[in-house]
Design brief:
The chain is of the alpha+beta class. The chain contains 5 helices and 4 strands, in the order H-H-H-E-H-E-H-E-E.
Length: 200
């Protein structure tokens, strides 16, 4: 311990503590609690500052979030015109023996041959300006329905389907069973759509 400074006097020189005094001083300092504890601050590594947002980099992101354009469905093609029946005046003329403009006989043909021949015949009839043609399919018998592709009964069933198909609607205006004088149930009157200015 150091000797106290006398009042009004000069401080004396500090003399070194002997071993006993040092031991006593260390004992006293261990039991004393400091009034203001020393704060031990650990230096934590500073976090790197976040990079500032680049406004130029945000522009592509905004462009990517543009509103998607909904593609419109293509318009549906117009429905083919409906088939028209024969006019009563024309039917009366046919029943009295009036002739058709042209006729096609499909007897003995296979389905494929008959279909191709029918389309070619109708296109030619339209090109020549015919208004009414006759297509002969044959009445068919009970056994001919099972005769395969060449059976006349098969053509009797298929020809009306072909005539009513959308792809022939630009040529065929209408059709119906022929009168007795032209083959009855084994033939069909086919009305051909006339061309106007080179188009049907």
């Amino acid at each position: 311990m150091t000797a106290p400074t006398p009042p009004g006097g000069r401080s004396r020189r500090r003399r070194p503590l002997d071993a006993e005094e040092k031991a006593l001083w260390e004992h006293v300092t261990r039991s004393v609690t400091p009034i203001r504890p020393v704060k031990r601050t650990s230096l934590a590594p500073a976090e790197p500052p976040e990079p500032a947002a680049d406004p130029a980099a945000e522009k592509p992101a905004r462009a990517a979030t543009s509103v998607a354009v909904v593609a419109k469905a293509p318009p549906k093609p117009p429905a083919p015109p409906p088939l028209a029946p024969l006019e009563p005046k024309l039917r009366r003329r046919l029943s009295r023996g009036a002739e058709v403009d042209a006729r096609l006989d499909l007897h003995g043909m296979t389905q494929a041959a008959a279909h191709g021949r029918l389309i070619g015949f109708l296109r030619a009839a339209q090109g020549q300006g015919h208004g009414l043609v006759l297509v002969i399919t044959g009445k068919g018998e009970a056994m001919s329905m099972l005769a395969g592709e060449g059976g006349r009964g098969v053509l009797r069933r298929l020809v009306p389907q072909w005539l009513g198909a959308p792809e022939l609607r630009t040529i065929v205006l209408g059709f119906e069973t022929a009168g007795r004088g032209h083959g009855g149930e084994g033939a069909l009157y086919v009305r051909v759509r006339r061309l106007r200015g080179g188009r049907p």
